[in-house]
């Protein structure tokens, strides 16, 4: 047989740490460790487990039970998505975040994962630089490598050695300024709420980033995968900003987390018309068009979105409660330094030793799964990510799992 591409040969030996630990936790491996797979409690998953809106489910039923509409859902949509879906997104953004955006500034894609790699293809040449906070979403590193191994990733520590997030704003901003002033620095990408820290980038800090990026002509890309999972009563004011306010702002959005659409995937990017136009060309080659059925159902749901605000409110309060239970149990049973979530699905905690070893030891001895932090960046070498997202409907498991780990590490 002839050889595979040098790209895949380079990347295949670098699977994500999340996949690694999940593989280790497969039932046959758990049995080999002398544990019962039914007793495993996983804090590993990066997903949500609340129910989708009933009105959305009913929208699917109406489409599926109508022969002609079901037939229509089997057709291609335009490459950048239906006009009606873009209108639905304009409406959704206005209802939830008081955001003003126009259809021309939106492209619908298959998911934010696909849109992110397509955006990298749109913005970055070999030799260009992108700024990422450290830690950050682990998949970005692999996605950038799959675009080119010659893209420079400049990681700026957002997590200090004392485990404080964005402790010294001035210092971070001056590093950003220095990097963005370089000709080859094209973009900075950050998530808010973030994965793995579940921190929300502070309002004044984001406004400073927007200013620096505007002054230097650099793109500021915000990944809003967890935008609806914010825990304070108010969202930061920049959640309302759009590329109509800042031409070089690009936001990546997803249907995965707000209405549990992880397996019914859709995403969208909001950007200047030039970027949208360019992305459309890239998307012709990557997915041809986004999913039609999911667009139709979303549009049907958004015809009468009375319940949307209340639904989001209930969901975010539910995740906030899960985060509080997790934090309390960490304090009670583990005693690790940790970040208190401001949104999202995770608690990052400092285990005080190389977390790869810690996670394996804990799994073997307790059947509890955490994600080791290294894959998110150097600052998380001794950190773990504890995900409460998948346990939101089984909150009692949070305390059960963390108390089990506590008994093990404290030798009780
Ligand atoms: C920060 C971040 N962005 C994007 C994604 C993936 O989103 P999607 O399901 O829309 O591909 C995730 C998934 O965990 C994430 O944590």
Q: How can the largest sheet be summarized?
A: 7 strands, mixed
What is Rg? 21 Å
Which series of helices and strands comes N to C? HHHEHHHEHEHEHEHEEEHHHEEHEEEH
| CATH-level-2 architecture of the largest domain | 3-Layer(aba) Sandwich
Choose one word for the global shape.
globular
CATH class call of the largest domain: Alpha Beta
- Structurally, the number of domains stands at 2
Low-confidence stretches: none
The percent range for helix content is 40-55%
Descriptors for this entry?
412 residues; alpha/beta; Aspartate Aminotransferase, domain 2; seven-stranded mixed beta sheet; four-stranded antiparallel beta sheet; binds pyridoxal-5'-phosphate
Overview of the structural elements:
This protein is an alpha/beta fold and 412 residues long. It folds into 2 domains: 6-51 and 309-409, Aspartate Aminotransferase, domain 1; 54-302, Aspartate Aminotransferase, domain 2, CATH 3.40.640. 43% of the residues lie in helices and 14% in strands. The protein is built from 15 helices and 13 strands. Strands 2-8-7-6-5-3-4 form a 7-stranded mixed beta sheet, sandwiched between helices. A 4-stranded antiparallel beta sheet has the order 9-10-13-12. The chain has a two-stranded parallel sheet with strand order 1-11. A hairpin with a 7-residue loop joins strand 9 and strand 10. The longest helix has 27 residues, at 308-334. The mean pLDDT is 96. Bound molecules: pyridoxal-5'-phosphate. Pyridoxal-5'-phosphate (PLP) is lined by residues 46, 111-113, 137, 191, 195, 223, 225, 254, 256, 262, 267.
């Amino acid at each position: 047989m002839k050889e595979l591409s040098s790209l895949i040969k380079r990347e295949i030996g670098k699977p994500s740490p999340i996949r690694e630990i999940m593989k280790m936790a497969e039932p046959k491996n758990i049995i080999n460790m002398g544990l019962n797979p039914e007793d495993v409690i996983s804090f590993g998953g990066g997903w949500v487990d609340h129910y989708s809106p009933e009105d959305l489910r009913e929208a699917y039923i109406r489409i599926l039970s109508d022969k002609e509409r079901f037939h229509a859902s089997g057709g291609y949509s335009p490459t950048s998505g239906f006009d009606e879906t873009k209108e639905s997104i304009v409406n959704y953004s206005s209802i939830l975040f008081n955001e003003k955006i126009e259809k021309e500034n939106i492209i619908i894609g298959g998911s934010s994962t696909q849109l992110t790699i397509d955006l990298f293809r749109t913005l970055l040449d070999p030799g260009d630089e992108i700024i990422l906070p450290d830690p950050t979403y682990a998949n970005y590193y692999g996605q950038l490598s799959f675009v080119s191994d010659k893209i420079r990733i400049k990681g700026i520590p957002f997590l200090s050695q004392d485990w404080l997030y964005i402790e010294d704003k001035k210092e971070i901003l001056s590093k950003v300024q220095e990097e963005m002033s370089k000709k080859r620095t094209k973009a900075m990408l950050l998530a808010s709420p973030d994965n793995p820290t579940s921190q929300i980038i502070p309002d004044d800090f984001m406004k400073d980033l927007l200013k620096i990026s505007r002054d230097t002509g650099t793109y500021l890309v915000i990944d809003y995968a967890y935008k609806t999972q914010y825990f304070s009563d108010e969202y930061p004011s920049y959640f309302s900003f759009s590329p109509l306010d800042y031409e070089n702002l690009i936001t990546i959005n997803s249907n995965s987390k707000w209405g549990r659409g992880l397996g019914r995937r859709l995403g969208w990017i909001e950007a200047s018309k030039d970027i949208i136009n360019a992305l459309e060309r890239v998307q012709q080659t990557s997915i041809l068009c986004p999913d039609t059925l999911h667009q139709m159902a979303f549009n049907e749901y958004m015809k009468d979105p009375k319940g949307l605000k209340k639904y989001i409110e209930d969901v975010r309060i539910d995740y906030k409660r899960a985060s509080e239970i997790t934090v309390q149990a960490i304090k009670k049973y583990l005693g690790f330094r940790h970040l208190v979530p401001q949104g999202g699905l995770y608690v990052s905690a400092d285990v005080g030793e190389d977390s790869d070893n810690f996670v394996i030891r804990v799994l073997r001895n307790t059947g509890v799964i955490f994600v080791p932090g290294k894959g998110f960046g150097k600052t998380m070498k001794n950190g773990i990510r504890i995900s409460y997202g998948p346990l939101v409907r089984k909150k009692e498991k949070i305390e059960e799992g963390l108390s089990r780990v506590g008994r093990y590490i404290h030798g009780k």
